[in-house]
TrEMBL record:
The gene is Sptlc3. This is serine C-palmitoyltransferase. The keyword Cytoplasm does not apply. Its EC number is 2.3.1.50. Pathway: Lipid metabolism; sphingolipid metabolism; Sphingolipid metabolism. It comes from the Eukaryota. Keywords: Acyltransferase, Endoplasmic reticulum, Lipid metabolism, Membrane, Pyridoxal phosphate, Sphingolipid metabolism, Transferase, Transmembrane, Transmembrane helix. It comes from Mesembrinibis cayennensis. One of its GO terms (cellular component) is serine palmitoyltransferase complex. It is a single-pass membrane protein. Its cofactor is pyridoxal 5'-phosphate.
Length: 553
């Protein structure tokens, strides 16, 4: 990996009391300093202001009390049903130890499975619903029913047609079946077939992979890039190649599981900082530099900061200018996961680096996936040529994993050329702009209705807070009755008091589709009493001045 940039001499001032007050009011508005951008995505060195608004409104106290009460009642009845199962009064549907193995170490931990047996099963029908069409703005759903309270399902043979898709990561609408759009993909399928049957280091590197990697590097404005067949493995299998024993990883507390797994597999020391909290991060950096490694007090071999561009469960955007300033100040490395942000934000879809008007050189390791905005599969690592050459030799994903199949590579090339305008049209730019319009419209309307939603105003990931466990199932079922497919998330994937529905806005959504969803949400919000927000968003919000973060070249 190349040496980190020189130390930034600018000062970082924190006004956390003011920030906390704004968070309580539901709006955090920050005027940050960013650099102007050239058309190719590389910083031109000019300085401009960018408004940064995020929402993390706290629910009223009674909502938290009722949420805990709901889990408490469910837990009590769960223990009652476990007692009945133990005495044969109720059928046991879960796996159990055999009588002959009662003295062995138990294979099934009852307490660990308690939530699954007694709470998750009650609302299990809201997940893993099989679809039978392309996951575009609308999809077809295979109808299924249960005769034993969600322990098993059977298909009826019917298909629920034209369900509005508010859950897929199809941000730019490239998950499509248009014959003309997929013409080049069809040609590559006929030429190369469906699989490679080899790894990149053996017989698995095709001219298509080389073409794609050059295109990705050009798109991001970096020296080189490497692509992988699986997005999750791009993180989990490459982080261990970059850091190891004697290194320190500073990870945001809300990082994706792939980042967490990669960090754990690396053998490096891991320390967690509060989500998007620069004071927490700087304290860890300062302590790492001052005290070094535990016991020996030797300096860390490397210090690397792991963050995401858009956090997929919160809808928040990384505070990249401040993090870059801190990483330069303390001579750390920065690993940026742009799985949800590449293609989705930035004037031309080049992610949070472009969104903040910064140079790609400010980030040591650029990672992203093709599974979302590009309607394909796989991921990439990009940056300096030395970094990519190192990974070509040492990455577990390159050494052991099967190469990306050619039709998928061609789909990514098609979508990326469209974004860059290399197809001779402005369709890609229009998709990026349409996504931004749809995102801001959808978020604004939800605020006006009185829902509590999390995240940045420019984030297409829109979490709507449900809180109470009983409302998770009721919300998803009633939305499906209105022909709207949604994703609901609860504990343990979220904090126990923050169950939510997560909407993913797409450029392919029409205004009519969004209005249909919003009207259904307005009606359902009244029926289920989900409009917890105590603050109405003004059309002319008060401006809050924050101390500016100075970035030096």
């Amino acid at each position: 990996m190349a040496n980190p940039s020189a130390v930034c001499n600018g000062h970082l001032h924190h006004h956390h009391q003011k920030q906390n007050n704004l968070l309580k009011s539901g709006i955090y508005k920050k005027n940050g300093i960013t650099k102007g951008m050239k058309k190719n995505g590389i910083s031109n060195g000019t300085v401009s202001k960018k408004t940064f608004i995020e929402h993390f409104e706290q629910a009223p106290m009674y909502v938290a009390v009722l949420t805990f009460l709901g889990f408490g009642v469910g837990t009590i009845f769960g223990y009652l049903r476990d007692f009945m199962r133990a005495w044969g009064l109720e059928k046991r549907n879960v796996a159990a130890e055999r009588e002959q193995q009662k003295d062995f170490v138990p294979l099934y931990q009852d307490f660990e499975n308690f939530y699954t047996r007694n709470l998750y099963m009650r609302i299990r029908d809201n997940w893993n619903r099989p679809i039978c069409s392309v996951p575009g703005p609308q999809f077809d759903l295979m109808e299924r029913v249960t005769d034993d309270y969600n322990w098993t399902f059977r298909f009826t043979g019917r298909t629920i047609k034209n369900v509005i898709n508010m859950g897929s990561y199809n941000y730019l609408g490239f998950a499509e079946t248009d014959v003309n759009a997929l013409k080049t993909v069809t040609i590559e399928l006929q030429k190369y077939g469906t699989g490679i049957c080899s790894t990149r280091q053996e017989m698995g590197t095709l001219d298509k992979h080389v073409e794609l990697e050059k295109l990705v590097a050009n798109f991001l404005g970096v020296e080189d890039a490497m692509v992988f067949g699986m997005g999750f493995a791009t993180n989990s299998m490459n982080i261990p190649a970059l850091v190891g024993k004697g290194c320190l990883i500073l990870s945001d507390e809300l990082n994706h599981t792939s980042l967490v797994l990669g960090a754990r597999l690396s053998g490096a020391t891991i320390r967690i900082f509060k989500h998007n909290n620069m004071q927490s991060l700087e304290k860890l950096l300062r302590d790492a530099v001052i005290y070094g490694q535990p016991r020996s007090r030797r300096a860390w071999r490397k210090i690397i900061i792991l963050v995401e561009g858009i956090y997929s469960m919160e809808g928040s955007i990384v505070r990249l200018p401040e993090i870059v300033s801190l990483k330069k100040k303390y001579k750390a490395y920065l690993y940026l996961d742009e799985a949800h942000s590449i293609g989705a934000v930035g004037a031309t879809g080049r992610g949070v680096v472009e969104y903040f008007g910064m140079s790609p050189d400010d980030v040591d390791v650029l990672m992203g996936t093709f599974t979302k905005s590009f309607g394909a599969a796989g991921g990439y690592i990009a940056g300096k040529k030395d970094l990519v050459d190192f990974l070509r030799t040492h990455s577990h994903s390159a050494v052991y994993a099967t190469s990306m199949c050619p039709p998928v590579a061609e789909q990514i090339i098609r979508a990326m050329k469209c974004l860059m305008g290399l197809d001779g049209t402005t369709q890609g730019l229009q998709r990026v702009r349409q996504l931004g319009k749809n995102t801001r419209y959808f978020r604004r309307r939800l605020h006006e209705m009185g829902f509590i939603i999390y995240g940045n105003d420019d984030s297409p990931v829109v979490p709507l807070l449900l809180y109470m466990p009983g409302k998770i199932g009721a919300f998803a079922r009633r939305m499906l009755e209105k022909n709207i497919g949604v994703v609901v998330v609860g504990f343990p994937a979220t904090p126990i008091t923050e169950s939510r529905a997560r909407f993913c806005v797409s450029a392919a959504h029409t205004r009519e589709m969004l209005d249909t969803v919003l009207n259904a949400l307005d009606e359902l919000g009244d029926f289920l009493h989900l409009k917890y927000s105590r603050y109405s968003k003004s059309s002319h919000p008060e401006l809050y001045e924050e101390s500016r973060l100075e970035l030096e070249d």
